[in-house]
Amino acid sequence: MELITYGRFTTSAVIASAGLFSTNALAEDAINAGDFQSRWGGLYGGINFGVGDLEAGGIFDSVDAGFDNSALSQPGALAGGQVGWAIDRGDWLIGIQGDITGLQVGQAADDKAGKLHSLDSNYIASLQARAGVPLGDSLIFGSAGVAYLDADVSTNVTTTNETFQYDAFGGVFGAGLETFLSSNLSLRSEALFYTFGKSLDLSSAADSGSNSSFTINDGFKFSVGLSYHM
Questions:
Q1: 3-state secondary structure (DSSP) of residue 10
Q2: What does the pLDDT read at residue 18?
Q3: N- or C-end of the chain: fewer Cβ atoms within 10 A?
Q4: Cα(52)–Cα(219) distance, rounded to whole angstroms?
């Protein structure tokens, strides 16, 4: 009887130990999964670089030759930085992000009279609300907000060389994909579309007609970047 009782006790102990081990393992997996998901939340900041373009419009109604300002559009390189804050709700994420990007977008072009005009983009900044869906170590997100553009347009560069500042507020929206490379560092790719539409009066420029104006209708930005999550 003592041997049988001892055997039963030993079997029960083994089963109990196995059950306890399985429970602890499941709890540890759940904790690890929670820690992994929570990395998307909190403060982050980083850098980005890529390509972009601005769609110029309007005309320079010169007294001796008309000029279509759309000829000043030219894709170029960009680089900038971003900082944001996110709240991770497990199945979804919300947050806010601000960014500023230096642009090398635009070009110079001659009108029919041989006078040179140019567009020099300086920077574009935005403040966006973001929402996304975490998928393990990746995040699919969308964003929308307000944007600000600062650029310079020059007329008659070869003669009077008058420069006008073009600054405009507009909208921005886009989407992207982000993936963790390590516990705190993530790699992102993002496409953004901008809308502006402000018209700048150029009728005061030398040799300009009363209908002269310049506008940026819209633009795009495609970038890749790195973010460090605090």
A1: helix
A2: 44
A3: N
A4: 7
Average pLDDT over the chain, rounded to an integer = 84
Q: Are the CB atoms for 66 and 60 separated by under 8 Å?
A: yes
Amino acid at residue number 78? L
- Count the Cβ atoms, other than its own, within 10 Å of residue 191: 14
For the stretch 106-165, pLDDT in tens is: 988 888 777 888 999 999 999 999 999 999 899 999 999 999 999 999 887 667 788 999
Instruction: Name the token pair of 175.
Output: 């989407």
- Which is nearest to 204 in space by CA: 215, 217, 213, 195? 213
Q: Which of these, 145, 130, 127, 226, lies nearest to 175 by C-alpha position?
A: 130
Q: Is 32 helix (H, G, I), strand (E, B) or coil?
A: helix
Give the per-residue pLDDT at 2: 46
Contacts of 76 (CB under 8 A, 6+ apart): 51, 52, 53, 103, 104, 105, 106, 121
